[in-house]
Amino acid sequence: MAPRLAPWRLLEAARVRGADPAEVRLAAEIFGRVLAADNIGEPDPGSTITVDCAERRFTPFAISVQPRPSPEERSDPLASLRAFDADALAKAHMRAVETATARIEEVRRSGASLYLTDVDAIDMEPVAREASDILAYWLEGSHDITADFRRRVRLAEATFLALCEVLLSHDPARGVALWRALHATMTTQYLGPAGTDELLHIAFRAPESPSVVALRDHVLSLPLCHSDQDLFNVAVAATYNGKSAWIDQTATADRGSSLVWRQRRGTVLTGLGVGYTLPVADAWPEGQIRSSNADLRCKAARLRWREACARHWWRAYLAAKDPVEAYATWILFLRSADARAWAWIRDDMEAQNESGDFFALKLAHVQLNQPVLKREMEKRLDRLDKKFLDRDIVDGVGPWGKVAESV
């Protein structure tokens, strides 16, 4: 039956049939030959591709395509503003989609059946247990990030993501090494829940171990995390995966540091958790704010206040007894929520002990308006990518220089 199954289905079949060691090794050997992708060149879709792994209603994941900025736009950000033309942008987007579609199909016809193909981490677990020696061939070149390893990763990025997650559980040291290699190698961005990079989610979903703890510290280090948007994304991944305590511990350690920038980072982190309740102290202080540090503490308190407001209005929406009250509380929730809300939205819905028609209608309203909710959440993040610890980023200075681009 093996020749009749898609390569990734072989791993699934071996698991479902009981993970017999002989069958797992056979499936891994066949899968490994496909993963090696001999004589298949590195793919270039010609555009920036983003994969939404959390969008699984109709397909394993949703793919979006964006035109790459021209060399002129990369060197001069104002060039894109001067060239702003709605019709031209729409045409450029359509060309990017057509080019990417044609190139993706061409790569798959050449034999790269794992390119942009979803592979479930659970199907990798028997391989990690029963065929660890075979994994060494799959990871060959990952330490030095050889050209061949880079090519294999870009032909099967979802496969390596799944493998990384499994290794972080079964062999943390090797999993962390692969995580770092994938961060430096992958060109497609895979988004997990809450619109946050799946690599971040993998780091915070992994079971606790010294290697994983060190990886989380690495995720927050300056080479990888040097904008307020980066800090927010790390916090979202941590809170979504139940690691709010890690944010609190890191914030406490930073605020006790002798380094000023770490003290400021600790202050920012105090505002990026979840589970706050109203009223929030210091969110609306009396009197004049006399220093930048006091201003930063106030802004962190406002972040706590905003999260507490969003949770308050979300629960009020779920508890509403009539359409007018429900709609009013929904609008107030929209005006206060950011991506941190995904950490508790589902839990709060499941905790409701209701099953009537009106509650079902409210849940349907949430599902129907998810695109609206996502857009409103993004509005809360305006210009976070332009600041670090609430100070303007200067291109070419510090972690925003050329050194950071090569990390």
Ranges where pLDDT stays below 50 over 5 or more residues in a row are 402-407
Number of strands: 5
Treating each run of at least 4 consecutive H or I residues as one helix, how many helices?
21
Instruction: Tell me the span between the first and last alpha carbons.
Output: 44 Å
Quickly give the structural class.
mainly alpha
Main sheet summary? 3 strands, mixed
Name the helicity range: 55-70%
| Mean pLDDT reading | 89
The fraction of residues in strands falls at under 5%
Q: Largest beta sheet: what is the strand line-up?
A: 2-1-3
Shape: globular
Radius of gyration: 23 Å
Element-level helix/strand string? HHEEHHHHHHHHEHHHHHHHHHHEEH
Model description:
By secondary structure, the protein is mainly α. It has helices at 7-16, 21-36, 71-75, 77-82, 86-109, 121-130, 132-138, 147-155, 157-170, 172-185, 198-205, 210-219, 228-240, 244-255, 260-269, 292-319, 323-334, 342-351, 357-368, 370-379, 402-405, and strands spanning 47-52, 62-67, 189-191, 387-388, 391-392. The strands form 2 sheets. The protein has a 3-stranded mixed beta sheet with strand order 2-1-3. Helix 14 (244-255) packs antiparallel against helix 15 (260-269). The chain starts with 6 loop residues before the first helix and ends with a helix.
Short description, anyone?
It is built from 21 helices and five strands. It has 407 residues and is mainly α.
